[in-house]
Amino acid sequence: MMPAKVRKPPLVAALLALVATPLATRLLVHGSMPDTWGVFPPPKSPDVPGFSWFVFVLGVALALLIAGFIRAPQRFGFAPPEPAPREQPRLVAFPPWCVPGALLAMASWALMWGELPELAALVPFSFVPLWWGFILALDGVVYRRTGGTSLVARRPGAVLAIGATSCVSWYFFEYLNYFTRSNWYYPNDAIFSRCGYLLWFGLAFTTVLPSIFVVYQLLTTIEPLRARFARGPKIELSRAAVRRLLWIGLASLAALVLWPAPLFPLIWLSPLLVLSAATALAGAWTPFSALRSGNWAPVVLIGLACALNYLVGEMWNFYSTSQNPNFWKYDVPYVNVLQVYEMPLLGYFGYLPFGMLCWVWWIHHAQLLGVDPAIDVVAGAGPTLTRHQDA
């Protein structure tokens, strides 16, 4: 049964508000744009606050709470998992794109780390094939584990649409980054022309959402992991409460512009509130819809998928050569210590809401454009590639 028709005005209004709120706040309060405005790639900011024990200890406490929840959700009101079904999808052969994707990823990986000096001229162009090779290879693993269901197999056009949405979404985050003292920046900024950077980064940004989604799909094929978070507390909000969350999201986005250092985590949380609330008000399914039945697996697993995906990505980034234009560094206020690769240890917990935001961003844009937003390969709480259900 197809879900009810989604109303587009709330989707359009939310997108416009996300773009206008930081811009209007900055101009109304300061009368001018940040000094780095329009410089791309964004440079390192000179005035990021240093380490703070107070903020660090708060961050560690929150991180331990999150880690405790993931490790033992039953301590947080979750019921024990139900017995796994006896019938499992039969394994099929890897699809034709899996091995070529893996070979492309490995060759590009060697290029990025400077292991093929005779092909050094290709190093600046290794990022995009590395990630798309990774996506194709992992999609092939998902295909095998599900008995022949994956995004590339069932909806290759959707893969392209997700890639295009990914490009738009990350340029939006780069836009927000101008207002937050450049929490991340790209020091290898003299390889291409400014126009070249815009074009190349546009291609690179197409990989963000597809890579997170394919790791999420792989995690959902692990039945014990999915079942661990499927019987939690039920949460259902009234439309009035959802509207309040939308306004809280916009207000917090404005606050982020006014106090970018102490409120820097809101760069991921504020858009998540706005887009999730607007998408729900429009009548569309989101991962948070599953909380009504107590199924927390979609929101937890997409967060874990994002963290795992970028643990690999941070490794690739850290060891890449100085000729990689996509190399990034962080300058995070108060907690820029204990780096695992370039990312501060506490920063990996920020990937959890970012994964949720990426999924909601895709659903929002897909509904706005009239595209089927389903990405799930395993029947669960909401739309899958073979089934639609509004849980």
What features would you highlight for this structure?
single chain; 391 residues; mainly alpha; two-stranded antiparallel sheet; two-stranded antiparallel ribbon; 13 helices; 4 strands; globular; transmembrane helix; membrane; transmembrane; Small-conductance mechanosensitive channel
Estimated helix fraction: 40-55%
Percent of residues in β-strands: under 5%
Shape category: globular
Q: How many helices?
A: 13
Number of domains: 1
Q: Main beta sheet: strand number and arrangement? A: 2 strands, antiparallel
Helix/strand-derived class? mainly alpha
Question: Using DSSP, what is the number of strands?
Answer: 4
Spans of 5+ residues with little confidence (pLDDT < 50)? 387-391
In a nutshell, what does this entry contain?
The chain crosses the membrane at residues 50-70, 91-113, 119-138, 158-178, 198-219, 240-261, 267-288, 295-312, 345-363. It comes from Nannocystis pusilla. This protein has 391 residues and is mostly helical.
Could you explain how this protein is built, in words?
With 391 residues, the protein is mostly helical. The chain has one domain. It is 53% helix and 2% strand. Strand 3 and strand 4 form a beta hairpin.
List the helices and strands and how they pair.
Layout: H1 9-30, H2 53-71, H3 98-112, H4 127-145, H5 151-154, H6 156-177, E1 184-185, H7 194-205, H8 208-220, H9 223-228, H10 239-258, H11 266-281, H12 297-318, E2 329-330, E3 339-340, E4 343-344, H13 351-369
Helix pairs in contact: 1-10, 1-11, 3-4, 4-8, 6-7, 6-13, 8-12, 8-13, 10-11, 11-13, 12-13
